[in-house]
Specification:
Layout (H helix, E strand, L loop, with lengths): L2 H14 L5 H16 L8 H16 L5 H14 L10 H21 L4 H18 L11 H11 L3 H8 L7 H11 L2 H14 L1 H8 L3 H4 L2 H22 L5 H15 L5 H20 L1 H9 L4 H16 L7 H11 L4 E4 L6 H13 L13 E5 L3 H18 L5 E5 L7 H6 L6 E5 L1 H16 L2 E6 L10 H16 L5 E6 L6 H9 L5 E2 L6 E9 L5 E8 L2 E2 L11 E3 L8 H5 L4 H18 L1 E2 L2 E2 L2 E4 L6 H16 L15 H18 L4 H7 L2 E4 L5 H12 L5 E4 L13 E5 L18 H8 L10 E9 L5 H16 L9 H17 L4 H10 L8 H21 L7 H5 L16 H19 L3 H10 L3 H9 L1 H9 L9 H15 L11 H12 L10 H28 L9 H5 L3 H12 L4 H9 L6 H15 L10 H23 L4 E6 L11 E8 L2 E6 L4 E5 L9 E6 L4 E6 L3
Parallel strand pairs: 1-6, 1-7, 2-4, 2-5, 3-4, 5-6, 8-18, 14-16, 14-17, 15-16, 17-18
Antiparallel strand pairs: 8-9, 9-10, 9-11, 12-13, 19-22, 19-24, 20-21, 20-23, 21-22, 23-24
Helix pairs in contact: 1-2, 1-5, 2-15, 3-5, 3-6, 5-6, 6-7, 7-8, 7-15, 8-9, 9-10, 9-15, 10-13, 13-14, 13-15, 14-15, 16-17, 16-18, 18-19, 20-30, 22-23, 23-35, 27-29, 28-29, 28-30, 33-35, 34-37, 35-37, 35-38, 40-41, 42-43, 43-45, 45-46, 46-47
């Protein structure tokens, strides 16, 4: 042990015994600590120090979680829950834990120049211990431990955790508030605090002009002033990028620090010491610094967009780049493809946003040329597409004004006005699509579309590593894109759960087996159990903290636990009498969620997610019982937990919008609407995009704090939950199947755990599995819990698998079963000669699916290949598949199968190029395409009847749609698998304004609409339109003129998506997010019909006419707002100095109101001018002083 640490220990002991003042103790501890930081009082050589440092850090911050830290955590957790702490806790333990935290800080410094990971791990653990010790009932002498904790987190580059610590505490001292805001990196608050400081000390600022401060100010006040100036200059860098005075400021700060080392004032010394270290880390990790690297890769428009991007992030207090984001930005700067593997909630979306700006506004694109570049953002589900569109639109169009258009498209090979306009665009496009939609766009637009694609982002890229049909679609799609796109097209994969497959996935996506990885987590992750008893009481246990098992020694329990963490559940006997275990469990689950959500952190309710992971009907099994529980059981309870309060102001507007949208789509009798009225969000995959989006807003803005959801929330939608509750049923894949004991996919479990925590608001995200305490099946249920934890702790790796491999194996197995043959030579012979459109058995039908993929690749490369090159290129198909990178014992065999099948398709099976193009454009397998072709005349005749759609009433319009459904249903393999009357009832419900006319739940109705009707029906329509367009590429005219089909056919996807029978209403809903409901859109559409009513036939639905009308309508509607927006404020001023001292043309100033005047001071606190009172806003506006004109002009910081 070094002399320095012995001195710290002695100082703490003296404090505990009460013979040393708090101020003196803090000063001595930090001075001793500082001497270690600056290299003084080192008695051992570096080698010995490093050896001891390694040992200490491994013991206290290594792979295991020390039992004494676990005891501290348990004690802190109980007190935090307002329960009695551990009986065994005493002052000696406080001393011991504080010693260890300070020792970690001391030895972390030794690692700074060596092992950066050990340096960060030591400081992170020190931050945790100090955070727990800082609790007022543990920190009885009121040491500033929470400040030290926050500083440790910041130095370890965990800014979100540092901010979470500081958000727990309120302080009165104005200077301390500035320090707290600095340690939070809360620069929005800093400017107000700085303004207040300068206002309260205006006489000191005036004195500065006469250089009299050294005469009139105390030494302490002088040092505080200089420190405030350094913080002000730091603020200037983060808000505007001003760095001309940074070096001078930091040198002054270092001088003050050294001077204060021997002073007596603890506050000033703490301020200098912590600020100096933390500010240096801020500069190193500032988002501004790292984005500067990207500016070298973009054109002038790109530089402007990146500057605006920084401003937007500044206003959201996102000024620091997390470690996970830094590695992503570094990779972006290389302009190469890559796979980014970072935990859930680690900022991957930021990398996607920056990649879009970088690639669509690249320096390779001339500022004067037409920029029609396209970025493809491929997402797994429609719900995620809507969420990504909302976030990217906010960043790239509403705020950055980049002229980048963002559209989310989904479904299969369907057509709509958005698709038709893509290739006509003269500005950059971001297309957010599912893999099915991306495939359809490629087939529809071909080379004209692909030549514009500069970037492909694959969200949830680990979904490629699966065996289902969607994984096959994704794998084959990426294969085709890799073969078709230019070499400089960039591929970026994003994944939170690619463990075990990251190298093969990275090689597939990025052409190198070196994924970009980071284990950065913005909050601490805990996993534990919540037991409920027959008496209605609860016990809460924590088993894992940040992937480490937590054990207590010499305690009554082996894990940190809290008795009665929430109030006793009412009516326990009533629930005990229920027959089924799930019936007994549900009310305990609901009560727990409401109680946890009623707990507050700095006047904000905790957010709680009830997550249903298994294959269960969330509406019937949980949502409906939850509603019944609130309406019936809780109606007899006096003190219901205050989990929800109707909001006010802007938040009330969002809440009311959510109610209107929910009522519009699902009706006021739906369980979704009724729960929303009770302050609970029900979120599931059966959710229209606009509703799902605003429900996310409700949670993000802390308007609603209880959410019940299925797996849709773990597939890319980031929401902040402090507590996640899983019923024990969610541990099983099929909870009610007694013959299937398989657990839920560990990938989904990990992804869910990663979503616990509210970065920057709290430091910890908690996940609890709800278990019965005295049930017969407790042992069995507990075994499920233990097993899934073992998988989690063993860091279970994904097994490499390829959907293409599985399809090939399936073909081979089906062939063996049918032929009773095992010879691979005969299978190869069958592969080379079988023509599926002439045969019909299971093996042939599966082969037909393979042919669709291979024919697609052949067609796409045939269009750009020189004569004679095609055969060589098809031999490269395999090496571009994910299967090529997956370990499989039959690798060579199946590679040969692919190569030989490709040759056969090209030479003997479908040798006619026009025939291959025929299959390709239709986007169905060859067999199904031939069946569709056989019914061409019948279908065409029915679709033509749509020419009278404008004159039809709503019932007749539905009948027309049903007529189309019926004719397609005659083709077995593409039919909607429901009875005609059932289909019609679902469709009538969807288009109806009055949902009370229908039986069945809203979720079941919409489940059919989204999964069956919207996807299958519009896919069939799209395939048929493709048939109509074959061999008509050279014809002039629009799609209607080329096909002869009425416009309504091209609107079918949109009217079905938005649930309206009117194309104009559908267009408004699709293109204007400010329009809340279909009723609102329909009212606006009347303006169109009033202006164009003279067109009384199908031409009234011409998309170009509708677009032009709405463009004019929006300009007129927004005209007044735009005029108001352009106004800027000006102030005539009196210069406060001799004019000769103003050597620059302009100065950045901030306004300080005092004595009925505005003092315009520069950022370092020097008065530059004075003016009369006017309207000011230091948050939203910037102010520039022009000395020559004697005026200050304000402008919006982010317009």
């Amino acid at each position: 042990m070094t002399v320095g640490f012995q001195k710290i220990k002695l100082t703490v002991i003296i404090l505990v015994k009460g013979t040393l003042s708090l101020q003196s103790c803090v000063s001595q501890i930090l001075k001793i600590l500082s001497t270690k930081f600056i290299g003084m009082e080192i008695l051992m050589n570096k080698k010995q120090d490093l050896e001891i440092s390694n040992k200490i850090i491994e013991e206290y911050a290594g792979e295991s979680f020390p039992s004494d830290f676990a005891k501290l955590y348990a004690h802190h957790s109980r007190l935090q829950a307002k329960k009695e702490g551990l009986k065994s806790w005493n002052d000696q333990m406080f001393e011991s834990q504080l010693n260890k935290a300070l020792l970690l800080i001391e030895y972390a410094e030794i690692q700074r120049e060596g092992d950066n990971n050990k340096f960060k791990n030591a400081l992170k653990r020190a931050g945790e211990v100090l955070e727990w010790l800082a609790h007022p009932e543990i920190n009885k002498n009121d040491l500033p431990l929470y400040l030290l904790s926050a500083a440790c987190y910041q130095l370890a580059e965990y800014p979100a955790r540092g901010l979470g610590v500081l958000n727990k505490y309120d302080i009165d001292s104005h200077q301390s508030k500035i320090l707290q805001a600095l340690l939070k990196a809360d620069f929005i608050s800093i400017i107000k605090l700085l303004s207040d400081y300068y206002t309260n000390n205006i006489n000191i600022i005036i004195a500065n002009i006469d250089n009299t401060e050294t005469q009139d100010l105390s030494l302490q006040q002088y040092i505080i002033n200089e420190t405030i100036r350094v913080i002000s200059i730091t603020y200037s860098y983060f808000r505007w990028g001003d760095n001309d005075r940074l070096d001078i400021a930091m040198k002054k700060f270092e001088a003050i620090e050294k001077f204060m080392l021997h002073g007596k004032d603890s506050f000033s010394w703490i301020l200098c010491r912590l600020c100096n270290q933390v500010i240096k880390v801020y500069f190193e990790t500032s988002l501004r610094k790292w984005i500067q690297k990207l500016k070298e890769t973009v054109n002038d428009d790109g530089k402007k967009a990146l500057d605006l991007y920084l401003k937007l992030n500044f206003l959201e207090n996102k000024t620091l780049a997390w470690t996970s984001q830094i590695v992503g930005i570094e990779e972006l700067a290389k302009n190469e493809s890559f796979l980014l593997c970072t935990p859930t909630g680690s900022g991957k979306t930021t990398i996607a946003e920056l990649a879009i700006i970088q690639n669509l506004l690249s320096k390779n694109i001339s500022d004067n040329s037409i920029n029609d570049s396209i970025a493809l953002y491929i997402v797994p589900k429609r719900a995620l597409a809507a969420e990504v569109e909302f976030k990217l639109s906010k960043i790239l169009t509403q705020n950055l004004n980049t002229n980048i258009q963002i559209t989310s498209l989904y479904g299969g090979n369907d057509y709509g006005p958005d698709e038709i306009s893509i290739t006509e665009a003269i500005h950059p496009f971001v297309l957010i699509c599912t893999q099915e939609k991306t495939d359809a766009l490629i087939r529809l637009f071909g080379n004209e579309f692909l030549e514009k694609v500069k970037l492909v982002i694959i969200d949830e890229a680990h979904n490629i590593n699966s065996e289902d049909s969607r994984a096959f679609c994704l794998e084959t799609l990426i294969t085709r894109l890799k073969m078709k796109l230019k070499a400089n097209t960039r591929f970026i994969g994003l994944s939170a759960i690619a463990d075990g497959i990251e190298k093969s996935l990275s090689a597939f996506i990025g052409s190198k087996d070196r994924p970009i990885k980071s284990d950065y987590r913005s909050t601490r992750q805990t996993i534990g159990r919540l037991y409920y008893s027959p008496l209605g009481t609860y016990e809460q246990y924590v088993d894992i903290i940040d992937g480490k098992i937590v054990k207590l020694e010499n305690e009554e329990k082996q894990r940190p636990y809290i008795l009665n963490p929430i109030e006793r559940c009412p009516f326990p006997q009533k629930y005990n009498n229920y027959e089924k275990s799930i019936q007994k469990m549900r009310p305990r689950l609901f009560w727990a969620a409401l109680n946890y959500a009623s707990q507050t952190n700095k006047d904000k309710n905790k957010t709680v997610l009830i997550s249903i992971l298994g294959i269960e009907d969330i509406v019937s099994q949980y949502a409906t019982p939850f509603l019944k529980y609130i309406e019936e059981d809780l109606s007899n309870v006096e003190n219901i937990p205050q989990y929800f309060v109707i909001p006010n102001n802007d938040k009330l507007d969002i809440y009311n919008k959510a109610l209107k949208i929910c009522a519009d789509y699902f009706g006021q009798d739906s369980v979704e609407y009724k729960l929303l009225k009770k302050g609970i969000v029900l979120h599931h995959g059966k959710m229209p995009g606009r509703l799902g989006r605003i429900l996310v807003q409700l949670v993000e803005q802390n308007i609603i704090n209880v959410v019940i959801a299925n797996s849709t929330l773990i597939e890319g939608i980031n929401l902040p939950f402090e507590i996640i509750l899983l019923p024990y049923t969610s541990l099983k894949r099929k909870p009610y199947d007694i013959n299937d004991n398989s657990l839920v996919d560990i990938k989904n479990f990990k992804n869910l755990i990663g979503r616990a925590g509210r970065p920057c608001l709290t430091t910890e995200g908690q996940t609890y599995i709800l278990l019965p305490q005295q049930e017969k099946q407790l042992k069995y249920l507990h075994t499920n819990y233990v097993n899934i934890l073992e998988e989690f702790m063993n860091n279970s790796q994904n097994e490499e698998t390829s959907a293409l491999f599985k399809l090939l194996e399936k073909i081979y197995n089906k062939w063996q079963k049918i032929t009773q043959e095992t010879s691979r030579e005969k299978f190869i012979e069958w592969i080379e000669n079988t023509r599926p459109i002439n045969e019909n058995n299971e093996a042939v039908n599966v082969l037909d699916n393979l042919d669709e993929f291979l024919l697609s690749v052949i067609e796409e490369i045939d269009n750009v290949s020189k004569e004679g090159d095609l055969e060589d290129k098809i031999l490269k198909i395999w090496e571009n598949t994910y299967a090529n990178y997956v370990n499989n014992s039959d690798y060579i065999f199946y590679k040969n199968v692919i190569n030989l099948r490709c040759k056969a398709l090209l030479k003997t099976i479908y040798p006619n190029k026009k025939f291959r193009n025929y299959f390709y454009k239709v986007s169905l397998t060859p067999k199904i395409t031939m069946e569709l072709t056989a019914k061409f005349s019948e279908i065409y005749k029915i679709l033509k009847e749509g020419e009278s759609y404008f004159s039809l009433g709503n019932n007749c319009r539905i009948n027309y749609i049903m007529k189309i459904v019926q004719i397609f249903n005659e083709i077995e393999k593409i039919k909607i698998d429901k009875k005609f009357d059932t289909i019609k009832k679902h469709i009538e419900w969807w288009f109806s304004k009055d949902k009370t006319l229908f039986t069945g739940t809203a979720s079941n109705h919409y489940d059919f609409i989204s999964k069956e009707f919207l996807y299958k029906f519009t896919r069939n329509i799209g395939a048929f339109i493709s048939l109509c367009l074959l061999n008509k590429d050279d014809l002039k005219g629009n799609q209607k003129e080329k096909t002869g089909l009425p416009w309504i056919i091209f609107w079918l996807k949109d009217i079905i998506t938005w649930g309206t029978l009117d194309p104009v209403t559908a267009y408004i809903m699709a293109n204007d997010s400010s329009v809340i409901t279909r009723v609102d859109a329909q009212k606006i559409s009347q303006n169109y019909y009033n202006n164009y009513g003279y067109i009384n036939n199908d031409e009234i639905f011409n998309p170009d006419t509708i677009k032009k009308w709405y463009h004019i309508y929006k300009i007129q509607y927004n005209k007044h707002a735009e005029e108001e927006h352009n106004n800027e404020e000006q102030f005539q001023v009196k210069l406060d100095r001799n004019s000769i001292l103003y050597t620059q043309l302009k100065y950045r100033v901030i306004p300080i109101i005092k004595n009925n005047k505005i003092y315009w001071i520069d950022i370092a606190g020097y008065i530059m001018a004075v003016s009369d009172i006017g309207k000011i806003n230091v948050y939203d506006n910037d102010y520039i002083l022009y000395p020559k004109e004697k005026r200050v002009i304000s402008s919006k910081y982010l317009s």
